[in-house]
């Protein structure tokens, strides 16, 4: 089956697809800490950071930095509505390629 629209190359990278899958599951009104996401995905900090920056550049993710009640620096990540739309379009495109099961 020929697909006219190209795949979203930003999401299509395996590591970024995994990141987006976790964040989309949480939804746009939820966030996850960098440390928790890193642990969940079993990625190195540098690798995860690079992929998050790439997703943030295209406005698929929002990143906020702050401090915990104990004064420890903390980075939180959430999916944006634009990111949700892009991910859902990506999934629909995959379904159109795979066809009904």
Automatic annotation (TrEMBL):
<dbReference type="InterPro" id="IPR027395">
    <property type="entry name" value="WH_DNA-bd_dom"/>
</dbReference>
<dbReference type="InterPro" id="IPR036388">
    <property type="entry name" value="WH-like_DNA-bd_sf"/>
</dbReference>
<protein>
    <submittedName>
        <fullName>Helix-turn-helix domain-containing protein</fullName>
    </submittedName>
</protein>
<feature type="domain" description="Winged helix DNA-binding">
    <location>
        <begin position="16"/>
        <end position="98"/>
    </location>
</feature>
<dbReference type="InterPro" id="IPR036390">
    <property type="entry name" value="WH_DNA-bd_sf"/>
</dbReference>
<dbReference type="Pfam" id="PF13601">
    <property type="entry name" value="HTH_34"/>
</dbReference>
């Amino acid at each position: 089956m020929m697909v006219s629209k190209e795949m979203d190359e930003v999401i299509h990278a395996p590591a970024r697809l995994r990141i987006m899958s976790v964040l989309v599951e949480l939804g746009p009104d939820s966030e996850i800490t960098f440390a928790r996401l890193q642990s969940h995905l079993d990625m190195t900090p540098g690798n995860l950071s690079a992929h998050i920056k790439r997703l943030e550049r295209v406005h698929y993710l929002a990143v906020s930095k702050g401090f915990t009640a104990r004064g420890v620096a903390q980075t939180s990540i959430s999916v944006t509505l634009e990111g949700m739309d892009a991910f859902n379009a990506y999934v629909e495109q995959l379904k159109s390629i795979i066809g009904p099961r």
